[in-house]
Each structure stands twice: as structure tokens, then as C-alpha cells.
């Protein structure tokens, strides 16, 4: 086999450079002093900077928005250890803030990128340059985010009561069990309120079930307005609700119970031109070491609620 002639070598080099220049990935080479030695068409098209303007310039002078300290650590590790390094969009969404022109994911402004950094050996065997390959992974990133968002929404729906928007019974009772176990470990005061609507069957029988739904929704709104973000409210039954008050002794739970009772009693519910008035009864129980489990705690609050209703309704009872 005869060796290649210089003309053939030039021809080979020409098509190799043409191929590198037109790959659908970003290619660049940095010298050891972090000046740009190669800048292919992908980088030109997405940055808007021609290679003549970039080559021979410090990367950080061309892109001053780069996180200098972080990126220099990455580059130095490649030079020092003679090992490739990788950056994914999960670590940082992008290295270069390029606009996204992807037809599928037009909702995102910036191109998500994965980046590979490769040590390049010179003829004398020393590592004097670093090659960077920049991949446009916008479609993958946006699709992954959409899937995660959908899964989050499904998870939220699975634990949400559709009528009130509060936690449903299954999820709320799971929280109750977790908070009881936390109380046993930490002994931090925690209280539970059970409440339901007085004479709710009468509302359904005289006004209809849609009116009953309106009453339930308004009560849920009042609860949402009056509890803290750390408290956990849920619809426990048809017209029965539960509220977990974290780091709250019974005396403070009683204050909330009275505020809820008064708010419901004094706030009319507009329904088809009428003003419906209802009241609630409440049972308050603080977590206690005498309870064997969270069900015992729940039963104590239910006993208090029963006593409040037996004593005339529109009141709270603490035992």
C-alpha cells in the first residue's frame, strides 16, 4: 500500500473538517489557557458569533455570564487527571445560554444541554487542549419535566378530595398515623380536631344535595383560610372533617376550634338566591402517651365530638 500523497492528505483533512463543522452537535476546543481553538457551525448558528470572532479569544471574555469558578474547576480536573468529564442538564440546564428553536418544545426559551469534556493529547503526549461536545437535549429535558409534572399532578389527585380540594380520608389518615409516631419520638405537643356540620341531613332533605355540596365546600374554604400552612386538614367523611395541628397544645387548638365555630355560625352561604346558615360541632384531643396508637387518638377526638353534639351542638368539647 502506498502512503498518502500530501494532496490526498489535504483532501482527507478537508472532508474531515467539513464533517466536524456540520455535525448537529456543538464542537469546540480550548487551549490550556482556555482560549478557543475550534468553533464549529453548530456553535456559530446558536451563539450568533462567527468563528473568526471567537477563535483565539478567552472563552470567558466571549461568554462573561459563565460561572467562571465552577467551570474552571471542571476544566482543570480534565487537564490534571486526563479523564473525561460530563455535565448533564439535570446538574445545570445549560452551559451556554442558547435560544431554543426545537419545534416540539417551543414552550421553553433556552436550549437544554448535555456536555462532554475530553482531554486531547498533543503529538508530544501531553494534555494541552480540551474538546467540548455540546448536545441539544431540549426535547428530552422538556418531555422528562412534563412527565414528572404529570406524575406529580396524578399523585396530588390521588390524595385530594374532589369536592373540597382538601386531603382525602386515606391520605389524611396516613398523615395522622405519621404525626402520632412523630409525637411518640419527639414528645412535641400535637392536637387533633374533628368537626362536622350540625343537622346536615336536614340541609340535604330540604334544600337538596347540591345545596349540601355548597355547604361542604364553604366549610372547607373556611378551614383553609384559618389554619396554618403546617397544619393538615382533610375531609374525613361526608360532612366530617379532621385537622391536625402540629406543635400545638390543646389550649391553642381550642382557640382555633372556637374561631372555626364562630366563623361558620356567622357566615351565610349563598345558594340559588337564598342565604343558608349552618353550625358545626367540634371535638379536640391532644396527642397523649396513654394512647396505644393513632386510632386511639382519633377515637378520643370522636368522643369529644359526640359529646359536643349531645350537649346541644354548635360548640367544641375537649377531654
Give a verbal description of the structure:
- It catalyses: 2 GTP = 3',3'-c-di-GMP + 2 diphosphate.
- Its cofactor is Mg(2+).
- Residues 19-82 form the PAS domain.
- With 319 residues, the protein is of the alpha+beta class.
- It folds into two domains: 6-145, Beta-Lactamase; 159-318, Alpha-Beta Plaits.
- The protein has helices at residues 6-22, 41-47, 51-54, 59-62, 68-81, 138-158, 169-186, 200-207, 209-226, 250-266, 294-310, and strands at 26-31, 36-39, 85-87, 113-121, 127-136, 191-197, 232-235, 240-245, 269-271, 274-276, 280-286, 316-318.
- It has a five-stranded antiparallel beta sheet.
- Strand 9 (269-271) and strand 10 (274-276) form a beta hairpin.
- The longest helix is centred in the middle third of the chain and has 21 residues, at 138-158.
- The mean pLDDT is 89.
Primary descriptors:
319 residues, 45% helix, diguanylate cyclase, Beta-Lactamase, Nucleotide_cyclase, 2 domains, alpha+beta, 5-stranded mixed beta sheet, diguanylate cyclase activity, Alpha-Beta Plaits, 5-stranded antiparallel beta sheet
Give a concise summary.
Pfam families: GGDEF, PAS_4. This protein is an alpha+beta fold and 319 residues long.
Helix-strand category: alpha+beta
CATH H-level name of the largest domain... which superfamily?
A: Reverse transcriptase/Diguanylate cyclase domain
CATH architecture level-2 label of the largest domain: 2-Layer Sandwich
CATH class of the largest domain: Alpha Beta
Low-confidence sequence ranges: none
Q: What does the secondary structure layout of this molecule look like, with pairings?
A:
Elements: H1 6-22, E1 26-31, E2 36-39, H2 41-47, H3 51-54, H4 59-62, H5 68-81, E3 85-87, E4 113-121, E5 127-136, H6 138-158, H7 169-186, E6 191-197, H8 200-207, H9 209-226, E7 232-235, E8 240-245, H10 250-266, E9 269-271, E10 274-276, E11 280-286, H11 294-310, E12 316-318
Parallel strand pairs: 11-12
Antiparallel strand pairs: 1-2, 1-5, 3-4, 4-5, 6-8, 6-11, 7-8, 9-10
Amino acid at each position: 500500500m502506498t502512503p498518502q500523497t500530501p494532496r490526498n492528505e489535504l483532501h482527507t483533512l478537508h472532508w474531515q473538517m467539513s464533517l466536524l463543522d456540520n455535525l448537529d452537535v456543538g464542537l469546540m476546543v480550548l487551549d490550556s489557557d482556555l482560549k478557543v481553538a475550534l468553533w464549529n457551525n453548530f456553535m456559530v448558528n446558536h451563539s450568533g458569533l462567527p468563528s473568526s470572532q471567537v477563535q483565539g479569544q478567552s472563552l470567558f471574555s466571549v461568554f462573561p455570564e459563565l460561572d467562571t469558578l465552577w467551570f474552571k474547576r471542571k476544566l482543570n480536573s480534565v487537564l490534571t487527571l486526563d479523564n473525561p468529564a460530563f455535565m448533564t442538564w439535570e446538574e445545570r440546564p445549560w452551559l451556554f445560554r442558547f435560544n431554543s428553536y426545537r419545534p416540539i418544545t417551543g414552550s421553553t426559551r433556552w436550549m437544554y444541554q448535555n456536555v462532554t469534556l475530553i482531554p486531547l493529547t498533543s503529538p508530544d503526549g501531553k494534555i494541552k487542549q480540551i474538546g467540548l461536545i455540546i448536545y441539544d437535549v431540549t426535547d428530552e429535558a422538556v418531555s422528562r419535566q412534563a412527565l414528572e409534572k404529570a406524575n406529580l399532578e396524578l399523585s396530588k389527585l390521588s390524595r385530594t378530595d374532589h369536592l373540597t380540594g382538601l386531603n382525602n380520608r386515606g391520605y389524611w389518615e396516613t398523615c395522622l398515623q405519621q404525626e402520632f409516631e412523630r409525637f411518640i419520638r419527639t414528645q412535641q405537643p400535637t392536637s387533633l380536631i374533628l368537626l362536622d356540620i350540625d343537622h346536615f341531613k336536614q340541609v340535604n332533605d330540604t334544600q337538596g344535595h347540591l345545596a349540601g355540596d355548597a355547604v361542604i365546600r364553604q366549610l372547607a374554604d373556611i378551614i383553609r383560610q384559618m389554619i396554618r400552612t403546617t397544619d393538615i386538614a382533610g375531609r374525613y367523611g361526608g360532612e366530617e372533617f379532621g385537622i391536625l395541628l402540629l406543635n400545638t397544645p390543646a389550649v391553642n387548638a381550642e382557640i382555633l376550634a372556637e374561631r372555626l365555630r364562630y366563623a361558620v355560625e356567622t357566615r351565610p352561604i349563598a345558594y340559588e338566591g337564598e342565604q343558608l346558615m349552618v353550625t358545626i360541632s367540634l371535638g379536640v384531643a391532644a396527642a397523649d402517651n396513654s394512647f396505644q396508637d393513632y386510632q386511639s387518638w382519633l377515637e378520643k377526638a370522636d368522643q369529644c365530638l359526640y359529646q359536643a353534639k349531645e350537649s346541644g351542638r354548635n360548640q367544641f368539647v375537649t377531654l
